[in-house]
Amino acid sequence: MKTLFQFRTYLRSKSINATALPLCCLIAFSCSSDPQNRPSPLRSDSTTLHGVAAYIEFSSPGVKNREIFGDGPDFLVPYGEMWRTGANNATFISIAADLAIDTFLLDSGSYSIFTIPNQNQWEVIFNREWEQWGSYSYKDSLDAIRLTVVPRYADQSQERMLFYFADDSLKFRWDKVRWAIPINRP
């Protein structure tokens, strides 16, 4: 069995600082790559709409006593600016066959969802580049559809951002904002 001195000498000979190894282990174990343990956990929902499989995946940020939507830089999501509609990777939806999203035809496939929030209306964008980080590489030339929704405001705040399918619609909730987009068979 090697002594501590022999072990440290071995590490030094391998160009590894013996004090860095425990620190690296601590960092590796405390920074979990498990999507459920992130500050904005990975969430999803799936359903069958009019006989068509639909799936949505998003990172779910929390309100955490912050001002979420509003005018100006003091808000986490300022009005009038492009938002990935979640955290981390862009939110994406996958559908197994063509569906009518509101009044627009959306071909089968996967799409990222971006929004431009405003107090009285939100622009919701389904973009063909579905696998991207945030909105940094967003290109409007890849938009499949853009539509407008009118938000409602609830009395109670929703702590975690949520997308879900219900009542033949894609629904959104976060903070006090709620909106829904009807989904039908074309």
What does this entry show, briefly?
By secondary structure, the chain is mainly beta. It has helices at 4-13, 20-30; strands at residues 42-49, 52-59, 69-70, 77-78, 92-95, 99-101, 104-106, 109-116, 122-127, 143-149, 152-166, 169-184. Helix content is 11%, strand content 44%.
Task: Draw up the topology in text.
Blueprint (H helix, E strand, L loop, with lengths): L3 H10 L6 H11 L11 E8 L2 E8 L9 E2 L6 E2 L13 E4 L3 E3 L2 E3 L2 E8 L5 E6 L15 E7 L2 E15 L2 E16 L2
Parallel strand pairs: 3-4
Antiparallel strand pairs: 1-2, 2-5, 5-8, 6-7, 6-12, 8-9, 9-10, 11-12
Keywords:
186 residues; six-stranded antiparallel β-sheet; 12 strands; mainly beta; 2 domains; disordered N terminus
Secondary-structure element order, as H and E?
A: HHEEEEEEEEEEEE
Shape: globular
- Biggest sheet architecture: 6 strands, antiparallel
Mean pLDDT metric:
83
Strand order of the largest sheet: 1-2-5-8-9-10
In helices, the fraction of residues equals: 10-25%
Distance between the termini: 73 Å
What does the model show?
A six-stranded antiparallel sheet has the order 1-2-5-8-9-10, with no helix packed on it. Strands 7-6-12-11 form a four-stranded antiparallel sheet, with no helix packed on it. The chain has a two-stranded parallel sheet with strand order 3-4. It has two domains: 1-31, no CATH class; 37-184, no CATH class. The radius of gyration is 22 Å and the shape is globular. It contains two helices and twelve strands. A hairpin with a 2-residue loop joins strand 11 and strand 12 (169-184). The model is unreliable at 1-32 (pLDDT under 50). Helix content is 11%, strand content 44%. It has 186 residues and is mainly β.
